[in-house]
Structures are given as structure tokens and as C-alpha cells.
Design a protein that fits this description.
Ribosomal Protein S5, domain 2, two-stranded antiparallel sheet, four-stranded mixed beta sheet
């Protein structure tokens, strides 16, 4: 599920800008771009991200700004001596006097100065880690809002499927009459009306209509829809369970479609399948 969180944390020397972005995914895929000074904290950060967000593509960006100069500059004495020794040798061999300000010239050469950054202390890390948690709380709030909208959309589609069941029941008597009349007409066409054994015809008709009966499928489909809504209201961690229920809903819809034998009913079945496919797509975002 998508989400975004942003936080800022500061201490006496540094300011941290923290951004977290998430996209839906079946597995946890964590991408981090953090200052080099905190590379050893990557496992701890990764564990916190996965514990809080569980799965999906997770991107964490931390930028660090120094509010004060926390670097120290030191002369590289070994490099300076090496440069001076080489210059003195060249001067003696070629009878070229060294200038009086030779030291000023040497310190402008590469590697004569060293910048040493102070190592972050534990207090600074705790400040930054709290910033990460603050950004995670924003991400979860974002995801919860999206989840409520998702829940409303899925619930509405389940209600549409239940409405379709009612529409099927309205046309079901007409469907049975059409099937009976078609069977009788076909029989008359092939063997003639006067040669029909009415008792045998009624027996065969009952047997045939029993195969086309969808009452059990309707009952199970309604129960699955009710169970789906109940499960969705249980809370976190029901994504897989909802997926299984959706499969059962699809099985009952397919059975009704195979038994329909009626154009209008087939159209309603197609509508139910369409709503179910949209539900399945949305369930990919549910943990």
C-alpha cells in the first residue's frame, strides 16, 4: 500500500531530513540512502522498517546538514616532509635556491591537509532513530486513511454482488418457465405432441431442472459475502484470508453461470465477475 512520511530531527550540530515512501508489493523490498557515518546502523533501520511496514517497496532517504562546523583540519606532516625533501634535493642538484616562503607553497599541494569528521555519538543516533519512527508513524497514518477508502470500496462491491443475487432471484421463475417450454417444444418437434408420455415427461423435466437448480449456490454465495465483510472488520492481517474467501465467491458465481441457461442471468453473472475481479485487485493492497 502506498504511503509517505517525512520528519526532521536536530541536535546541537546537525539537522537530519528523513523521508520514507512505500509502494505495494508481496515481499519487503527495502532501499536506503543514508549518510556514510550511519552505514553500520543499516540492519537496525531495516528491521524497524520491516517490523512497522511488513511488506512492499520501502524507500528511506536521510540527508544530513551540519549546522556547525564539526570537522577538524590537520596538517599531514609526513606529506609535507616528503614534499620538502624532494624540493630540497631538486634545489641542490640544480643549484636553484628555495624561496623563503617554500612552506606556503608546499601546503597548497595535494594531501598536505586532512579533514577529520567527528564520529556520531549514541545520543545523536537516538535522535535520528526517533526521527525515523516519526516518519514511519506518518506513513502508517497515510496507509490507514487509504485503507479506510479501500475498505469502503470493497464493501460497496460486495453489496453489488449481493444485489445481483436478488436480481437473479427475480428472473429465476421466468428462466424455469422458458426452459420448460423450450424442452416441450423440442420434444413436440421431434416426436409429436400426441405421442408424449406426460408422466415420463414430468419426471425427466424434474430431473433436468434439479441439475439447473442454483438455490444452494445462492445460499453459499450470500454466506461468503457476509463472511467476507465480517473478516474485513476483524482488523490487521486478514489479506490472505480475504483472498481465500474471494476465491470461494468466484467458485459459486462460476457455478451459477454454468447453470444459468438464460441470457439475462448470464449478464448478471458477468457483472458479478467484474465486481469480484476489482475486489481481487484491491486485495493485493491488503496486508
Amino acid at each position: 500500500m502506498t504511503g509517505f512520511g517525512k520528519a526532521e530531527s536536530t541536535n546541537d550540530q546537525r539537522k537530519f531530513m528523513i523521508e520514507i515512501r512505500t509502494l505495494n508489493g508481496k515481499q519487503a523490498d527495502v532501499i536506503m540512502k543514508i549518510p556514510a557515518a550511519y552505514k553500520d546502523k543499516e540492519p537496525e533501520i531495516r528491521n524497524e522498517l520491516i517490523n512497522q511496514l511488513q511488506r512492499g517497496k520501502i524507500e528511506l532517504y536521510i540527508t544530513m546538514e551540519d549546522e556547525f562546523d564539526n570537522t577538524t583540519t590537520k596538517f599531514n606532516e609526513a606529506a609535507i616532509k616528503n614534499y620538502y625533501r624532494q624540493l630540497s634535493g631538486i634545489s641542490e642538484r640544480n643549484h636553484i635556491p628555495l624561496p623563503s616562503d617554500i612552506l606556503n607553497s608546499i601546503i597548497r599541494l595535494p594531501d598536505t591537509l586532512k579533514l577529520e569528521r567527528q564520529v556520531p555519538d549514541e545520543l545523536e543516533w537516538q535522535i535520528q532513530f526517533e526521527g525515523i519512527r516519526q516518519a514511519l508513524r506518518q506513513v502508517n497514518n497515510f496507509r490507514q486513511q487509504e485503507g479506510l477508502a479501500l475498505m469502503e470500496d470493497i464493501s460497496e462491491r460486495i453489496r453489488l454482488i449481493e444485489t445481483c443475487i436478488e436480481e437473479i432471484e427475480k428472473i429465476e421463475p421466468q428462466r424455469l418457465d422458458i426452459i420448460k417450454n423450450r424442452l416441450r417444444q423440442n420434444l413436440i418437434e421431434y416426436i409429436g405432441e400426441n405421442t408424449i408420455d406426460q408422466n415420463r415427461f414430468e419426471q425427466e423435466l424434474i430431473y433436468y431442472l434439479e441439475k439447473l437448480d442454483i438455490n444452494e449456490e445462492k445460499v453459499r454465495l450470500r454466506n461468503h459475502c457476509v463472511y467476507f465483510i465480517q473478516t474485513m472488520n476483524e482488523g490487521d492481517g486478514v489479506g490472505k484470508k480475504l483472498g481465500f474467501i474471494a476465491q470461494e465467491i468466484g467458485r459459486e458465481i462460476n457455478t451459477i453461470g454454468s447453470k444459468a441457461n438464460h441470457a439475462d442471468m448470464q449478464q448478471i453473472v458477468i457483472q458479478m465477475k467484474d465486481e469480484l475481479e476489482k475486489i481481487k485487485e484491491q486485495l493485493l493492497n491488503v496486508l
